[in-house]
Amino acid sequence: MTFFRTFICISAFLFSALAAAAPEPFATTLPAGDVRLLTIHGSNTIGAELAPNLIRAWLQAKGAEDVRMQAAEHENEMLITGLVPATNSLVSVLVAAHGSGTGFKGLVSGEADIAAASRPAKQKEADLLREMTDLYSPASEHIVGIDGLAIIVHPQNPLNELNVDAIAGIFSGKYTDWSELGGKSGPIHVYARDDKSGTWDSFKGMVLGKRPLTATAKRYESNAELSDNVSSDPAGIGFVGLSSVRLAKLLSVSDGNAKSLSPNKLTVATEDYALSRRLFMYTDDEPANPYVSEFIRFVVDDAGQKIVADTGFISQEVKAVIPEFYEELPQDFRDITRDAQRLTINFRFQQGSAKLDNKALKDLERLVSYINEHKDSELVLVGFGDPKKTEKRSQLLSKLRAMAVRRELVRYGIYPQASVGFGDDLPVASVTGNDGRVKNRRVEVWVKNLSSAS
User: Fold this and answer.
1) Which of 111, 114, 402, 417 has minimal CB crowding within 10 Å?
2) Can you give the CATH number for the domain in which 188 is found?
3) For residues 136 and 142, what is the distance between their CA atoms, to the nearest angstrom?
């Protein structure tokens, strides 16, 4: 234990040094005169409430007073203003929430400083912005929170769960009566987001694939309006962001042979839930506007992540929890994680690479901070993967993933107690699709409290 604590001290020193070298969170001051600080275009999921709430908290933290939100000139646009006491002038931020695709167009045209997206940037969008920045770089792609695409029905619908394939069948028109899915006889009314929505893009990518949406679907620009209409229609089914379930009934979802899960703090934060998705803000890698970098730092750090949670999304703050259905896990897995809790992060990798993805890179910093605050703890890393030609190879690759995370932690002076691989056991997604393989290739983090275990 003394050996472990020595390394924790080293970790604390290194982390403090890194923090000291980082830019001050509020290096800029609010200007004199009426000034538009920045403009955000894009996702309605982010722009309806989350972005305005983040901006309000940021302006207040910078000393602005009488911060107000008001409808702007066009529908689904909001202007957030704050008074600068020293100069009695107004500063403002505009949020235009017309869908994720519009955010990238705003970056291209220069009308937007930040593109908010409830899906990753598409290759064609990255190509358009190539002269400005590499959208996939850690300096341009910022994960601001995690959302779960919620499948919702009327509160009196007897169904409690659906498979992704069944959901695809409903929204493509294969199933048109609830009795085909074990429900009460009656027509199915489909509700869907519009074509500009990142929520629609995510649903199409995760559920429909190349299947077209049924022509009978009613389309909506707003999550809230869609949810309210489903909750008032006994035959209705729709999809919304997790924060917009409102009065509708939430269904559990499974993918392939994976266990059906409801979206909650653990399943969404770790992206184990079949329809979990990341929420993004994209910027120039070296923004000319200094307020952009400052705002992004505020959003991804603890203060901003608390706003993410308060708005109804899943923050990236690291928490220790006991998973639901823990007693149903294999005995050898429970032996390794005995007296441990699971942390609300999974480390994942760039597609086709052994390198950690952008979220994982930031999560390393969050994990170091967590261990620095919980010095009497030890980590267990458990790697998983997808089926290979032999079970032995699958297990080896999963252990190598755990070892890759361990190597990164060692750089911070943190030495996990164990790094093991479980091969293709306990999948969280279908193994047939590429996205499913990426989700299954993960490293879970479990934490043991040494004082309570001794």
Assistant:
1) 111
2) 3.40.190.10
3) 9
Q: How high is the pLDDT of residue 20?
A: 38
DSSP 8-state assignment for residue 261: B
pLDDT, residue 22, reads 44
Mean predicted confidence (pLDDT) in 326-349: 94
- Strand order across the 340-347 sheet: 320-321, 340-347, 443-449, 377-383, 418-421
- Measured CA to CA, the distance from residue 93 to residue 72 in angstroms comes to 11
Q: Which residues make beta-bridge pairs with 23?
A: none
Query: Backbone phi, then psi, for 393, in 5-degree steps?
Result: -70, -40
Residues 282 and 184 reside in one and the same domain:
no
Cβ atoms of 39 and 289 closer than 8 Å: no
Could you give the 3-state DSSP secondary structure of residue 449? Answer: strand
DSSP strand E in 105-213: where? Answer: 114-117, 141-153, 161-163, 189-193
What distances in angstroms separate CA 193 from CA 50, 51, 149, 150, 436, one per listed residue? 18, 19, 12, 12, 23
- For the record, the structure tokens of 443 come out as 């490293």
**Where is pLDDT greater, at 252 or 438?**
252
* pLDDT computed for residue 373 by the predictor: 93
DSSP secondary structure code for residue 356 in this structure: B
DSSP 296-347: HHHHHSHHHHHHHHHTTSB-----EEPPTTGGGS-HHHHHHTTTEEEEEEEE
Same domain, 95 and 115: yes
When divided into structural domains, the chain yields a total of 3
> Cβ distance 418 to 338 under 8 Å?
no
The percent of residues in the chain predicted with pLDDT above 90, rounded, is: 76
> Within a domain: residue 113?
yes
Torsion of CA 164, 169, 172, 178, to 10 degrees: -120
Question: What's the pLDDT tens digit per position in 167-184?
Answer: 999 999 999 999 999 999
Q: CA 376 → CA 22, 198, 268, 336, 451, distances in Å? A: 27, 42, 27, 18, 6
Is beta strand 252-254 parallel, antiparallel or unpaired with respect to 114-117? unpaired
- Locus of tokens 């980082």: 22
Amino acid identity for residue 171 in this structure:
F
Structure tokens that stand for 299 in this block: 């959003």
Q: How many CB atoms lie within 10 A of CB 21?
A: 7
